[in-house]
């Protein structure tokens, strides 16, 4: 899912973007702004993946605003002026939508954003070293099925073995990538390894891990 905002000084243009975005399953339009500075401030406090950005705005142009964005932010320019197209692509905008644009053209631009995002490294770690009884052992996250809390210890269930390490669950949680999710106050699972989801438990291979009511919405 891509998180997005729209910045355009024309109310009608924002309504069109809202309408189109609501029909694209992998886009969540978090907010829409008619003021470029407000949109920039929102993005600073609530970073999004993608910005639909008008170029010709009264207080600050979309081109100037794009120069203030973090490099990783994807931008799709939206404007009624085709002469800005070359400048937009010089700034590495992902796409350029010439108003009025159709839903199909909007979807094409969104698919380009999704494909570009998929090519970028996640920035998440691939492994950690944990202290066992007599050594520091490397654990590749792709091989870790689930974790269970046991006081000041945690057990880490791999495909073919279980390791015990002295650390708190909170300490471990900070080290794990985002695809490890809580199912219970004492269990975290690798959601990429889940084979089956039932009302009160999930199954990973031959293991059954409990799901409490408090965490059911996150599965």
UniProtKB/TrEMBL annotation:
Q: Which GO terms describe its molecular function?
A: DNA binding; phosphorelay response regulator activity
Sites where 4-aspartylphosphate occurs are at: 54
Domain Response regulatory: residue ranges: 3-114
Q: Which intervals of the chain form a coiled coil?
A: none
**Per the record, a Pfam family?**
LytTR
Keyword line: Phosphoprotein
Q: Which domain of life is it from?
A: Bacteria
Q: Which residues form the signal peptide?
A: none
What are the HTH LytTR-type domain coordinates in residue numbering? Answer: 128-219
Instruction: Show the SMART domains listed in the entry.
Output: LytTR (SM00850), REC (SM00448)
Can you name this protein?
A: Two component transcriptional regulator, LytTR family
Where does this protein come from, organism-wise?
Answer: Cyclobacterium marinum (strain ATCC 25205 / DSM 745 / LMG 13164 / NCIMB 1802) (Flectobacillus marinus)
């Amino acid at each position: 899912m891509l998180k997005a905002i729209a910045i355009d000084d024309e109310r009608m243009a924002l309504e069109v973007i809202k309408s189109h975005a609501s029909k694209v399953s992998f886009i969540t339009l978090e907010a829409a702004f008619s003021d470029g500075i407000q949109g920039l401030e929102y993005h600073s406090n609530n970073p999004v993946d993608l910005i639909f950005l008008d170029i010709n705005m009264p207080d600050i142009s979309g081109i100037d605003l794009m120069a203030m964005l973090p490099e990783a932010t994807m931008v799709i320019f939206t404007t009624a002026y085709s002469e800005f197209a070359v400048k937009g692509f010089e700034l590495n905008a992902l796409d350029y939508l010439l108003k009025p644009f159709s839903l199909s053209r909007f979807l094409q631009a969104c698919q380009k954003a999704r494909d570009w995002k998929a090519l970028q490294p996640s920035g998440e770690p691939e492994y950690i070293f944990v202290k066992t009884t007599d050594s520091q052992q490397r654990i590749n996250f792709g091989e870790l099925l689930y974790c269970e809390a046991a006081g000041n210890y945690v057990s880490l269930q791999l495909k073919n073995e279980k390791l015990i390490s002295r650390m708190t669950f909170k300490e471990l949680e900070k080290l794990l990538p985002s695809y490890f999710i809580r199912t219970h106050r004492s269990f975290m699972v690798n959601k990429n390894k889940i084979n089956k989801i039932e009302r009160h438990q999930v199954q990973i291979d031959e293991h059954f891990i409990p799901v409490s009511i408090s965490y059911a919405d996150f599965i």
